[in-house]
Structure prediction request, 317 residues.
Amino acid sequence: MDYYGTIGPACAELETLQQMVQAGMTGIRMNLSHGPLAQHSDWLELIRKAGIQQLLIDLQGPELRLGDLAEPLNLSIGDFLRLGTGGLGCPAALTETAQPGQKLLLDDGKILARVDRAEKGGLDCTILRGGVLRSRKSIAAPGLVIDAPTLTAEDRENLKIAKACGVTGVMLPFVRSAADLKTLRAALDEADGAEIRIFAKIENLAGVKALPQFLPLADEIVIARGDLGNAMPLWELPACQKKLEAECRAAGVPFMVVTQLLDSMTARAVPTRAEVCDIYNAVLDGASSLMLTGETAAGHYPVQAMDYLVKTARTAL
Prediction:
C-alpha cells in the first residue's frame, strides 16, 4: 500500500521529509495549481535527497481556481465580492457562463457565494457563508456546465519536463470522459513519458457517471472528496464514495482516497476518532493508496499526520 503526502511550506525541509519517510510515506504529491514544475527545482532537490521514489504532479486541468491575492480576504455573510475584471481573478470560462442566482463554492466549499449580477468579464457576488479566502483556491459551480480544455498550456509545459524531473505519476483533475485520459496519455507519449502512470481524479458528477468508460485507461482512480463533495449534497458523498470503490474493485483497478483524511491535524497534534475510522474503513474497502494534502503541505504537524495515517491504515491490512 502507498502513503502519499503533499509537499508545501510546512514540510519543505530535508529533515521533515526524511522523518515523513521514516513514518512510512512512500511518495509525495506536488500541486502545480500553485506554480509550474520548472519553478520548483528546490523542492525537487529536497525530494531527491530525502530518497522519495514516487513523485506525483497534480495538473491544473479543467479545474477552476481563483487568482492571486496580495493578502488573505476575511469575508463575512453579506459581504460583496467581485470576480473577474475589476476584482479577484478567476477563469474567463466561469465569468462567461455563470448567471445571476448561481451558487459558487470557494476553497472546497468553506466559503459560499451567490452571483447577483453577471456581465461580460465579471461577476458581482454576495457572500452567504464566510471565511478566510486565500490565493489560488478552488471554485466549484454546482450544476453549471463549463467548457474547459483537458490540459492548459501550462500543463503541457509541465508534462514536457516531467520525466526529467523524476515524475512517476500524473494526476488529472476533474476527469469527465475517456477522451480526457486519452488526451493526457497522448501528451505524455509525445513528451517521452510513456512509463509515467495516470491517476484519474473523480471530482464531479460527469466523472462519477463516466467512470466505467475510462477505468481501463487509468492506472489508478483518485476519489477526491473535496470537490466531489461540492458536486452533491454532502450527506450523499459517503454513498458515492462506496459506489466508486465498488466499481474500481470489480474492474480490478487500484484506487486512492484523498481529502480531509486528517484535516483536524492541520492545527492539532492528534486526530479525531472519526478521522482514524475514516482511514480504517477506506483500507477495508480496498484502497491501494491514501494521500494527505493540506495536512502536510500547510499544517503544523506534517510528520505526526503521516505517522497517524500509516499506523491507522496498517491496522486494517
Q: What stands out?
A: The first helix runs from residue 14 to 23.
